[in-house]
Write a sequence for this structure.
């Protein structure tokens, strides 16, 4: 069955970096766009970044441009989110999601999330 599994979260000090991974199985990964979302306590879920199925296009929420980078390795069925210069306000559960049309539109499938905590 289709599965998305996030990993790489943890506790990091302000200014540090983390790389999140989203491992996919059970579907043709290269056909799907992949996005990263996050949800902080008491806040709505927000889309952080998305990458098209062929990696030809990547989109970012304006406030994170320059600090976060989304990428994918279709040969490894894995997407990544490189997060640099982390701030306490980046603390959230991070989720990856897949869009079967490949264009960063509606997301049909979701992972279980990985916690990122930025604190000294």
């Amino acid at each position: 069955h289709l599965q998305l599994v996030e990993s790489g979260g943890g506790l990091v000090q302000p200014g540090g970096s983390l790389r999140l991974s989203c491992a996919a199985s059970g579907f043709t990964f290269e056909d799907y766009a992949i996005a990263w979302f996050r949800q902080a306590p008491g806040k709505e879920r927000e889309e952080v970044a998305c990458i098209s199925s062929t990696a030809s296009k990547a989109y970012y929420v304006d406030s994170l441009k320059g600090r976060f980078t989304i990428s994918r390795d279709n040969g490894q069925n894995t997407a990544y989110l490189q997060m640099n210069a982390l701030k306490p306000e980046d603390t959230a559960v991070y989720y990856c999601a897949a869009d079967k049309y490949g264009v960063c539109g509606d997301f049909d499938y979701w992972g279980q999330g990985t916690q990122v905590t930025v604190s000294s």
